[in-house]
Amino acid sequence: MSQEAVAEQSSNEDVKPRLLTPDWFKAKYQDLLSLLGSRAFQRQLMWAAGSILMAILVATVLMIVAGYNAFLAWIALIRSAIVRFDRTLLEATPLIFTGLSVGLAFKCGLFNIGPEGQLYVGSMLAAIVGYMIAMPIVIHPIVCILVAALAGFAWGFLPGLLKAYRGAHEVVVTMMMSYIAINLTSWLVRGPFKEPGQMVDQTPDILFSAELPKLFSAELNAGFLIAILVVFVVDLFINKTVIGFEMRAVGLNQDAAEYSGINAKRNMALALGIAGMLAGVGGAIEIMGWLHRFESGWSKGYGWDGITVAVLGNNNPWGILFGAILFGALRTGGRAMQLRGVAPAEVISVVQGLVVLFIAAPRIIEWLYNRFADEARRAKKSPVEAAPYFASIAVSLVGSVMGLAAITSVMGEALLLVLSVVGGILGLYAFVELLARDARGLKALLLESAMWFALAVGGFLMGYPEFLATFAALGVIGVVIAVAAWRMTKMDKESNLGGEN
Amino acid sequence: MADPISVLVLLTLQMSTPLVLTALGGMFSERSGIVNIGLEGMMLIGAFTAVAVTHVARNPWIGLLAAVIGGGMLAAVHAVICVKFKGNHIVSGAGLILIGAGLTEFGSQAIWGHKGYSDPLPTTIVLKPIEIPALEGIPIVGYALSRLSPVIYIMFIMVALCWYVMYKTPFGLRIRAAGEDPSTLDAAGVNVEDIRMIGTILSGCFAGLGGAYLSIGYNTAFGSGMTAGRGFISLAALIFGNWTPIGCFLAGTFFGLLMGVRIMIEGLAEFQWLDPYSEFVAMIPYVFVIIGLAGIRRSIPPKAVGEAYEKEKRQ
């Protein structure tokens, strides 16, 4: 870099506005606008939104197949997530910490799959310090957090060291550490630190001095504010400090980072340590703000959800904040779904898994997006050609869902069971192939319709008269649409599944 | 009651069977170049499918077959994401674990109506051990050999078969080539993507079989999270065994031995005094996995593992 460039850069830094002045806000606002306008950000947003949408779609199909009223379930979920907004933020608080934990390790190219264990050791130590040691009111929570941070750090640092210096796979080791932590804390709370005279394994309540104050409601507490503060700090740490820069460099390319004089091993160990620390603090916050004592098995998968949150937020601290609030809402809504008996709350874990899957392969969403854009263009050009094509997609999917939903009612009859399973799977296959505008999809749709005819007749003969009307109609519609699409729509000869890339 | 050593031999075989099977599966996937940390999810799906299908079909063998198919289908999702859409292997694997856990809990709620566990199957329709009283007389191993579950025999056959397929058949060569040097394989006129798809789906089939053994071979019911990290331990066994069939078998048996020791200590009267510390006993396998991974000389993974293969991309 030339002399002038250096001078210019330093002078640029001189005009950088001071923190929290009006100029600073203006600059931040400009940054935000340019971020929102940037292509990369919009793509990222499209991936995230598309993944969530697709996951919800798949989960809806799943619920219908299993015989739940998906519409009512989603209504219950959304309603409760909005009405109980304080609960949503409460659920989001530990997710922010575990999400940051996974995200920070990801920035350094490491996959921390064990925030659950780090959460447990942190919360255990915070609870112990919280109830055993008397301290003044503001200092007590701070000490609890520090102790929990230390414990979490240790729990992440060990896998980090093993990864950096012994090449031990961090995914396996953090997972094993997680199981060790869960067993260890479960022993501690069953033995030495158990509240005497209690049936359940739990520590005594923490002292009042260690509790975090409530905010506005009975559930939301100051822990959420601390979480936002930590998001801010982690953002600064990753993007504005030397060590954060080194970690990112190691994450992008370890060899290149080492050539440029960065100690990659030290950074890797440290990154996992700090990741563990964040999760540990999250555990302490949950104890001090909400639970007020350690109970065996209190975390209902907050550590696991941290992975989803980090992946959804693209490992960006602010993205993680939004991801955590979204999943806090899903958890709150899932509970409401379960309580109202419309659907089991486990639907939410399926949604989470699907979101992670779709985000793992952004090209799926891009492919779908391109396909839809392409189809919209074609439909505009010649609506007559497009109509049977879209109808065939819809019929294959609806048929498959109905066929799979029939499974539960034909459990006893092996023939009907096989017919409905095969028909349902054929329908899904036809749906995917038709989405790809592949002629094989139409053949599959014809076969699927044949299954429905067989199911209609078989059902009628075996004592399910209601099948006759439904599945015969489904079969007729399927055949008509398939033939119409065959005649009128130009299909690609070769599958273009993923081929555009 | 047999002497402790004989029981330990049996427990070792029982505990190592799911580990070895899953590790063999992981070998097919990783040797072909696809990282598969979703084995845990595939095992769960296998365990659940086995119980659910046996519950309906009243025949454990159909359940076993369904578990293989179920695990394979979940792996097919992984294969499509990693191979066709060139997604991130590790993230996709994590998603599979979440889906495996979520689907099985959802399914047990939908089928049996309670959260996260199934009704126990009647003992008449679970996989019964094959009793060979003639072998009972052999010292040490006789007790175990005379009452092995059919899946354990399948496991032994699979180890031999995998070794044969991996090293003695063109298909094995292609799998290994897809993981070491995909562009050469491509130049030889073999479709790398197809090989990787097959390798990944095979891994799910094996993991499903391993999970099925847990639910209808060793137990008679499904419980959520019943795999308890076995997918990850299998992954460790795979690394420990240097991505070879025999290595997977030995490492899986070693970790199986540790799990057997754990069950032994919990069950034996001589170790009653350890009861207050049962959590520490439960940690034994996990601790040894970490020590094992940290202690071994660096094992060498397949060269191109974890990289999407782009045709005609400059290296």
Question: Can you walk through the features of this model?
Answer:
The complex is a heterodimer of chains A (501) and B (315). Chain A has 501 residues and is mainly α. Chain A folds into 2 domains: 39-360, ABC transporter involved in vitamin B12 uptake, BtuC, CATH 1.10.3470; 381-488. Chain A is built from 20 helices and no strands. Chain A has helices spanning 3-15, 22-37, 39-65, 70-83, 85-107, 115-132, 139-166, 170-190, 223-240, 242-252, 254-259, 264-291, 302-312, 317-340, 346-360, 362-381, 383-406, 414-435, 440-461, 465-488. The longest helix of chain A is centred in the N-terminal third of the chain and has 28 residues, at 139-166. Chain A starts with a helix and ends in a 13-residue tail after the last helix. Chain B has a two-stranded antiparallel ribbon. In chain B, 56% of the residues are buried. The model of chain B has no long low-confidence stretch (mean pLDDT 86). In chain B, α2 runs antiparallel to α3 and α11 (245-267) runs antiparallel to α12 (278-295). The longest helix of chain B is centred in the first third of the chain and has 28 residues, at 4-31. In chain B, 68% of the residues lie in helices and 1% in strands. Chain B has a single domain (4-295), classed as ABC transporter involved in vitamin B12 uptake, BtuC (Orthogonal Bundle). Chain B is globular, with a radius of gyration of 20 Å. Chain B is built from 12 helices and 2 strands. Chain B is mostly helical. Chain B has helices at residues 4-31, 39-57, 60-84, 89-112, 142-145, 150-168, 170-180, 182-187, 192-218, 230-240, 245-267, 278-295, and strands at 130-131, 147-148. Chains A and B meet through α8, α13, α15 and α16 of A and α2, α3, α4, α10 and α12 of B.
CATH topology of chain B: ABC transporter involved in vitamin B12 uptake, BtuC
Low-confidence stretches of chain B: none
What overall geometry of chain B do the principal axes of the alpha carbons give?
globular
> What is the number of helical segments of chain A per DSSP (H or I, 4+ residues)?
20
